[in-house]
Here is the input.
Amino acid sequence: MSDFLLEISRNASARRFVRALGLPLPLPENLARGAGAWEALPLADRAVVVGASERAELASPLATCLASAGADPFLAPSEALAGAFRAPGETFGRPAHALDALADSRKAHGLVFDASGLERVAELEQLHAFFHPLLGRLARSGRVVVLGRELDASASPERAAVQAALEGFVRSVAKEVGRGGATANLVRVARGAESRLGPVVRFLLSQRSAFVSAQPLVVTARARSVGEPALVRSLDRKIALVTGAARGIGAATARQLAAEGATVLCLDRPGDDALLSQLARAIGGVALLVDLTADDAPARIAEALAAHGGVDVVVHNAGITRDKTLARMSVEQWRVAVDVNLGAVVRATAALEPQLRDGGRIVCLSSVAGLAGNVGQSNYAASKAGIVGFVRAEAERLADRGVTVNAIAPGFIETRLTAAIPVTIREAGRRLSALAQGGQPDDVAQAITFLATPGAQGITGRTLRVCGGALIGA
Amino acid sequence: MREWQRAPKGRRAVIVAGARTPFVRAFGELTKVDTIALGVAAVSGMLQRAGVAHRDIEAIVWGGVILPSASPNVAREIALDLKLDAACEGRTVTRACASGLQAITDAVQSIERGEFDVAVAGGSDSTSNAEIKLPQKLVHALAPLAFGKATPKDWLGVAAQLMPLGEILPQRPRIAERTTGEVMGEAAERMATRNEITREAQDAFALTSHQRAAAAIAAGRFEAEVVPVEAPGGKWVHADGLVRGDTSLERLAKLRPVFTKGGTLTAGNSSALTDGAAAVLLMSEDRARAAGLRPLAAIASWAYAGVDPADQLLMGPALAMPRALDRAGLALGDVDLVDMHEAFAAQVLSIVKMLGSDAFARARLGRDRAVGAIDPARLNVHGGSLALGHPFGATGARMVTTMANELVRTGKRTALLAICAAGGLGAAAVLERID
Here is the structure.
């Protein structure tokens, strides 16, 4: 009985039955998800409606991104858009059409609005003008993406206010479209980082971002460029290290990285030998049995990486909980949680830095619970919030080598950890997101893998939540 | 960049002769002539007209798409049926609709490498003789009965596997992409939409193809190229069967879309399933001159390209053509004639559009300017597959023969050939006349 609703919602006939009877049972939408290696044309034949504010500046990279990903663009009236979409349309055989040409029977997979030109408060109304008539035409598991500007300190206060307003707007839209499995996200692009926008939009419009919603992603030119990014099999000939790889999010991440072509070193505790070896065999990787709390762990990891000639992608996924309210928590419980979740990350990163190749990637696992705070998790939340500061500083330090450092903060994900939560709280945890359901380990793996790819060069020092638009958290 | 290697002058392969059977609609007059027999007819007719002794042929390289499963090496079967010297070896190559051109460029390589001096290259296909395939499920189910003595238990096991019946009935052959399941016409239909090629433009192009082919036939332009075939029963087939010189835009406009509802592709602006064969005679230049034969043309360069079949299945030539031109050291404006296989009018017009686009050239070819415009007067001067038909493996040798003769007849210098093929493949070759 515990996950009765989940079972029902997976059964098409049962869904129809519940709907027909008008039962007040909230049935979460089955999210359309991507699987396996990235496609060359993730948006093949999907209708994407594009609008732009006055003075919009991102039409050109957006047009190239959509046409090369296989989307059929439909443009809201705008001279700037029509001009920018002409050449990419011709190149990839994806001519842009006027919005009127979108057949009434055809749903829009994506709604993209370039709000980068918005400067005055009154101009925010352009968001209303674009989205108001279109939201009803958004497909199930559709995508809303708003493009804004990451401003520097010299921007006028009004412009700063207008660009900040986009975030509240997107978070609200995410909640409104979430019941249909659709997501809404914001991309803020810094000046000089326009060429790095494409792969980010490609990810957000694809089925790989099924559980990423209500998030602002910032794209900058901070991490040094390492050349034109490959979009397919982008991790070929790269070495990746995933800690906590035996199960759950770690295993899913190892699989996804391998699907993109990486050779994955799967690390977990010696006790998980069987599971880990099985995974490593399945994905053509290497099993690495290391206890992260041991004194010699950093040295052993560095040694293993050296044997492979270095490392390109490091995913610090291993984590534990030792939940107790602070008044009842022993210092041992505090110490072990903070040490595995944060201390080991700091130590291991320092030890493997000499092995990290230029253009490399570090992805650390934070947690929405860590950002929001939670009863009985003061140790866990401290360690997971610490990750946010760690990636920010480390990103700055490694930017000149083209290395990006980011955190992923999963919300409610269906894993062994969450399965242990009492059923009522568990069901509530699922419901408290815009998508009204928990995520899958694969959803987190997809986001981690995206950050690990060359296309994510513009994102560094950030914490990306994979939470389905969770109610809680900063 | 890799350098394109040309053979030393005397060693280069030259085209000495070419001929083909009449091209006729599948399940028409040549229904009972299979791909091997068609090949025999084309090769024997060509050798007779060229005045070359059988014993001089050292090898046959043959292209085919629908290969007979009991004897897939059609090349060798042709040599044996034709009673060429037993030493004349043969290999069969397949690269979908580019198989015929593939056979020719393969033979050219072998000659230029010094493997042989005289070879026949070409291709044939008989859509009328496509084998109806049994589903793999039935084949696997019957396996226990085929090997050794079957027990009653085996029989029961087989019976149990044969349900539901729909899965074990023979399947109608379809020209569908293996990876996408898409029928080629559907892919071309999508290309028409995506490259904004109208029904009117397609019909107009098809009309030109028919009119030019009909004019060429009426003027006797193909007489030297077409050899008659004897069908079982003693009936001789002399003429191409698909050309409709009397068609008109009005008649073409009346045809219904055949691939998608509300689409633009019709039987009139798509090539038809066809039976036929074509062959050319290739020699090293020194050998040809020593034998007192007149070389017509040489293949200066060629290129093959692949694209994602899920994207624009038939756009391959837009990548292969500029590559072949580069290798020949020519620009599109330099070539006198362009001959492009017409699978569908929509495919030809899409490729012409791509070649004319600066944006396409920058993003897809890594060059600053468009490959160039193609003057319609230079494109498919005697019509193409829309009018003549398209026996898959034969089209390459048909195009090479017609263009080689055209260069000699008109005194022009170069011709660019292009063929699109299933699997997202494209082929191109540059033909140059030899003085």
Observations:
- The mean pLDDT of chain A is 93.
